[in-house]
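Researcher: I'm preparing a figure for a lab meeting and need a structural model of a single chain. I don't have an experimental structure, so a prediction will have to do for now. The sequence is pasted below. Please return the structure as tokens so I can convert it later.
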Amino acid sequence: MSFSTIRVTIGRVILVAGVLVLLFIPYLLWGTGLITAQAQNDLRQQFLATQRMHHATVVLHPPTKPPAVLTIAPTIAPPATGAPVGILSIPKIAVSVVIVEGTSAEQLRSGPGHYPGTPLPGEAGNVAIAGHRTTYLHPFYDLNELTPGDPIDILTGQGLFEYRVTTSRAVDPTDVAVVAPTASPMLTLTTCNPKYSASQRLVVQATLVSGTLVGASAAPTSPNASAGSTHGVPPVQTPHQKHWWQAVAWGILVAALATATWVFALRLRGGRRTAVVAAGIVLWLGAVFLFFGALAPLLPASF
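Model: Understood. Here is the structure written out token by token.
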């Protein structure tokens, strides 16, 4: 192999690598949304099917004003990891998204994740939910716009619960005190801060102001009654198993498709070459999308 051939080959490899890097940025910002949109559709169908099964004739509406005595939902077992917890609605920033159980990289690809070990929405204590800021459909992109008094509604299998924002602040990523148990029923939403960075965490906290229970009876209780008594500090999340081999396998396929398309195109002329190049690019882009899908969860932070 001549020096000229080696130089040309290296140049092509660098060119393809550069294209991949340029494509990876829009994939993270927009392509990941396709994955989350499909997952959200599936989760919403699962949740609504469960609602219809248990509350076929029930239609819930936010109460016009907080009740004089706050009703707390009874403590129940959480859903399975990856299953829908409920629907989170934040009118001010036009958010309506299904919450999933768990906060590993895999669960957060499907939507905002409920921290295991914290109460479920409507229950006593500090309900903690994490979500992406700029990737995977960016459900918490505008979370910084929330101010004290803004409503946050969560619909679960137990009923509809309305929270009102009390505080919003940025903390260090290692500050776990924000999801610690509390004496009063509240909600904590966390996401990366600032946008396109994971150097901090944006924390929005809200207090429970009303609840409409269905399918279960619960005596009205004081907001401070037994709050947090059944939930301890949420356990540290076990890192999601990283399947490096999947990313490597898809990377090899991406390289193989690029090489095969180039080699076959050189042997053809005219319309045949154009057809081979067009087909190769389509297949290559499909493989690239799957490669990025396997690669993204392996990164230190996906914002």
